[in-house]
Amino acid sequence: METPTTDGKSAHDVHGGLPIPRRAANRAVPRAEILRDWYRQMLLMREFEIRCMQAYQDKKIGGFCHVYIGQEAVATGCVAALKPQDPLVTAYRDHGHALARGMTARACMAEMFGRVDGCAKGKGGSMHMFDRKNNLFGGHGIVGAQTPLGAGLAFATKYEDEVINNGKSSRVTLCFLGDGALNQGAFHEALNLAGLMNLPVIFVVENNGYSMGTSIHRGTTQSHDLSSKALGYGIDSAVIDGMNLLEVYHGMKDVVDKCRRESRPAFVDMRCYRYKGHSMSDPRKYRTRDEEAIWEQGDPIGTFEKFIVDQGAITQDQIKALNKDVKQEVRDAVEFADNSPVPPLSDLYHDVYREPWGPYTGTSEPRMYGGALNPPTFRATREGDGLI
Amino acid sequence: MSATQELEFRDAIRDAMSEEMRRDKRVMLIGEEVAEYNGAYKVSRGMLDEFGPKRVIDTPISESGFAGMAIGAAMLGLRPVVEFMSWSFSLVAADPILNNAPKMLFMSGGQFGCPIVFRGNDGAGGQLGSTHSWCVEGLFSNVPGIKIVIPSTPADAKALMKTAIRDDDPVFFMESERLLGMKGEVPVGDDVLLKFGQACVRRPGTDCTIASWGRPVHFCMEAAQELAKEGISCEVLDLRTIRPLDIGAIERSVRKTSNLVIVDQSWSFGSPGSEVAAQIHRRCFDDLDNHVHRVHTEDVPAPYAFNLEQEYLPNTRKICEAVRSATYNA
Ligand SMILES: Cc1ncc(C[n+]2csc(CCOP(=O)(O)OP(=O)(O)O)c2C)c(N)n1
Ligand SMILES: [Mg+2]
After folding, report:
1. Minimum-distance CB partner of A63 among B88, B129, B299
2. Looking at this predicted complex, what is its ipTM?
3. Residue nearest to atom 13 of ligand 1 (CA)
4. How many CA atoms lie within 13 A of B264 on its CB side?
5. Which of A106, A296, A367, A386 is most buried (CB neighbours < 10 A)?
């Protein structure tokens, strides 16, 4: 069998891309404790998705469900390169990002189950994970929809730092998109705006080679060199091996630090592979089982596990314990989700509008304000209120 | 009665497209995953094999681009069928489909028409959440220059699709993903077409008219059956097209039953349902025993949770309640 490759030299190279620079070899290896944390993070994502697939078969989860299996190194490494206050926004394949950002497996699973304890009270679902506390500004179901939002989040952090607080732009926004989203108009408009306005936003293309059944070269021009997309908008880019956590971390650290320092947008072609179908109903006729097997040899978790073992950063006992631990955490999340109540029907009418006068009643009559003749006075927003 | 064959809803649409493509080389199909994947919902199954990649064309995820491109092609005389994987995704193509297609003929003083069909999955019901559950007829029926077709049976779907492709104006054809697997008898033959703007009586009755279109027609039939047990006889009308709207058929039925319940799965505010109600109040003012009742999707964004979505949609229970109320049986 061939060895997996992400740099265009194999028959099973699905990206057909230019070679990927290697960065990790020349860098200091993070502390063992950090390495173990990252390893656990990836295990958690994998286990979470496996249980999601089961729960979907059991009809506990409805709608569309897009799992992240194979791409764990990307969210883990990218989030590791961020600060907690940096906004993050992504597409619908969002469970991994939510967990990486610090959402609990319980809140994420309960959302998948459509229960009140979900991160969005069961209203958003698999494709729409939001977590304000952890600066996760959504999974977004419409391909490309999050890209202008990413530019807008960066606009706001910069505006707050520079205009409201008279300081220096200090935060970066990470905006994830799939390779398929490269072909949406919104993406191109967002890039132009980000370039034009010097917005500190990083567009990370999780280039897994396919958008549903369309391989990247069938849907995107210049797919061998995606930096050409950014070039036209005056935006710097990087190619990173998304199957290798250390490469992701070091590559992203450079990009994030530069973006923060210079307050300029960046673009990343993150080469990766999704091991499962696009969603739960995809027979994967557009690729061979052989191709999948080869990519599975380059499993980001296996690769990283081998690395940290070789480094002496983890023992076999610790590996066993972490695996067990993660299984327990996800089992608990499933149980929690299963026991969480379904939302009360009255929840339909909440969160449609802000409710300073009482709940919306599902009509556009003034009685939507609870029938109050004189709305209670409420404070107008003013300077100094802070943004979020 | 001509011969029929049993077909799934999705295959009825496919057969209509294929027959029209055999008949007229100007007809082609374009959209995401329509060719090699056989359609995200398998509506175009087998079409690539028959017609080849020059006439069954896969696109990138670029709705605005390919919808606009197809409109340009239609101006020059092709007759494209454009698949939106879901009508929810047509919103990123709002400008071409609402600002170009329906206005070209008018703006050019009759010089350039736009013989194009946009089609795809429409409506909620699969727990897809707020972004993927649009009933776009609520929005788009407001726009003159568009024809809107929303079939409820495989036979209608086939005949109306053929009419849509032969029509010289832009037609928005809306399919419920929930109905695609439904089977039904479909007349065999290349030339079975249905004129737009012809409602059909799905069930005759005397006490109350229930008017609907698309998937909720089936809920109306269930409700009518339920209500028959209570001694309330309902006449179920399937409008089949929203533009043109067969208001005459509703009027005739209401003159007989004196009551009308409209079941519309889009939001109530400024909807096809509110338009029908307004017109019937004017035309049948003296015939009505009660004001027109309407059952819509709840006036909130589509929720994900199963129980919330069930409550959100028009359903048999709500239709029964509306009919009882309209007929003073509440
Ligand atoms: C505007 C729009 N068009 C179509 C879709 C349907 N759709 C959902 S995901 C998808 C493929 C996207 O692929 P990619 O961006 O590569 O992300 P991946 O699934 O590989 O993570 C498509 C066509 C959508 N959600 N939004
Ligand atoms: Mg992809």
Report:
1. B129
2. 0.93
3. A211
4. 26
5. A106
